[in-house]
Write a structure and sequence with these properties.
Elements: H1 2-8, H2 15-45, H3 55-60, H4 71-74, E1 76-78, E2 81-83, H5 87-107, H6 123-131, E3 141-143, H7 144-151, H8 161-179, E4 182-184, E5 187-190, H9 197-211, E6 222-227, E7 230-235, E8 244-250, E9 253-260, H10 263-272, E10 279-280, E11 284-289, E12 292-302, H11 306-319, H12 326-332, H13 339-351, H14 357-361, H15 365-375, H16 386-390, H17 392-411, H18 416-432, H19 434-462, H20 468-497, H21 504-530, H22 538-562, H23 571-605, H24 609-646
Parallel strand pairs: 5-6
Antiparallel strand pairs: 1-2, 2-3, 4-5, 6-7, 7-8, 8-9, 9-12, 10-12, 11-12
Helix pairs in contact: 1-2, 2-5, 2-7, 2-8, 5-6, 5-8, 9-11, 13-17, 15-18, 17-18, 19-20, 19-21, 19-22, 20-21, 21-24, 22-23, 22-24, 23-24
Amino acid sequence: MKTEVLAAIGEDGLRRPAAVNAALAANDRIKFAFTLLQAALAHADHPEQPADNLRRERIACGIDDLDLDGLIAATRRQGSRYLVPGVPRLLARIGADLRVMAAPLLAAPPSAAPLPAAGHPEVAARLDALLTTMPVAENDLLDAGAVAAMTRLRHGGVDSLHQLVMDLHKELNALQAGLAQETLEGAAVYALAETDRPRVVAFMAGLNRTARLKGDHPGLGTTATRSGDRLVIQNDIGTTDAHVIVVHVDGLVVSVTYTDVHPERLAFFQSLLERYQTEWSTAQSGTLAAGAAFHLATGRYTAADEAGCRAYLEFLGSRLVFLIDWNRARKQLRAFLPGAARLALLRWAADQEVGHRGFLELGGARLINQAIEATAGSAMHFGDRLSDVLGVPDTEAFLRFVFRAATDGLLARRSPSFVRDRVRAELLHHFSNEERRLLQLAAEHAALVFELASLTRDGVLAVTGGADSLEKLARRAHRFEHDADQLVIDAREAVRRRPEYGAFRPLIEASDDAADELEEAVFLLGMLAAAKPDGPVLGPLRTLAGLLDEAAREWVKALGHATHVREPGAADDTDDFLTAIDRIAALEHQTDDAERALTAAAVRHAADFRQLHLYAALGSKLEAACDALKHASLVLRDHILAGLASG
């Protein structure tokens, strides 16, 4: 009707743009109809599953037929066929919309619409032939094979309605761009209202800000026009046929229709818009080709005001570049990170506007594998994942560096060899940093041992106050011991990844033996408090607890100095390190004497057998704790001195 009215009033120049607008709107309606049919048949096969009515998608594509909202839930399977209420009317709509889609191309000069590829029939003949294959659907009965034949793409030389729709859509996009009245910030636009222009500018501002991150990859072509009462913005994103985004802006409501062959990328795209709390419909699937599927979802955002609408459009435009080659980047990261961490890395790259295209252009996985070959040495073995060796946090930090270095290098037109060298240097830092990380982990464990030794000393001083005064200390000791156990687990995992640092396992396990003995000692002090101790036995017990407190303090010092021993000009640290190790050994000898003194005093002065047993057990626990610290310190000493000798 619009084209006829325009012709009647002499506005021939707008006939083709109006026809293209109508054709693109018909494309949206046809794709909705295909999705509706497929969803209806799928629900009939699995009626126990909840049915989405696709109402939001129906409204978004401009169909006012309310009866369609109940079609999915009402569809039933009857033998080899399906009862689809009102399906003849839906099929008639598809046929009519196909003719609307083809109209501007059939009316255009041959040079303006080179749709038929070599070996394929003319558009009109192809359209007529395919329309004759549409099912009749008598009595609302439909064969599943008929729907599959309509909705699949060309396969094995057999044409389909869906293939025709895809071909027509591609040529309509080209025709629309050619008909544009002007280019607005890089978008081909025509028939815009004045209120549309700042919104298109906002969308393109976001898109242009990040578009440079795609490098030489094609894509991100944008067209914008007005269709009825709403602005329509379409972007082709990349080169995949089914990878398209269409944006409708009606008042302050922005509808986003997104299609993709990868459901993971669709979910990723939805996550990119989380900050704006976009409401998404349930994703629908359709057949793309030979069993492959495409997926469609519609999002809706209602802005509070015009500024909010433009802000959303700008942000939306800025996110599209991060969808190009996203699945390829995800696959390239398989050898380095587990699944959830890969997605988190790609999300970080988008949020930071770093992107992953630079990483891919510089070789992707090959860039990292070359760095591993040049720097890892014996740290990695065949089949190892990088995160199994460095750990997930360090691998994430390294790969973030890689993504940023690749992007910065490409934008600054640095040579690929320069970027590769930066990546190798960074990876070497991560591999050589493992000993420092293990020393830090051991130091954290030593700090917990010191806390436990301090609690033991405080418990001995408070033991005459009754059992209640020891309960709080026992709870704290239990928490410290639990935290220490977790550090042991972390150290074992690190050593498993890096066997060349195997000395750290006996080191931290010996230190943890001290933690276990001290936690048990605090528990025994509670029992001793209940036995109401008094007299000369408490003096030797306080001496022994004081020696443990000092030994734990020296253990913390030793690990602190060990971190710096191998640094240039670290003579003072080396002396302090060896002094702490020597002091621990001396304290261990003193605890042997103190434990014997405690035993002798207990035999002479314990009030009863229960007290005697508790004193003896406490002496044994404290002496064993100091002995464990001495063992740990000697393992550390041998490791550090061996490193100095080899360095």
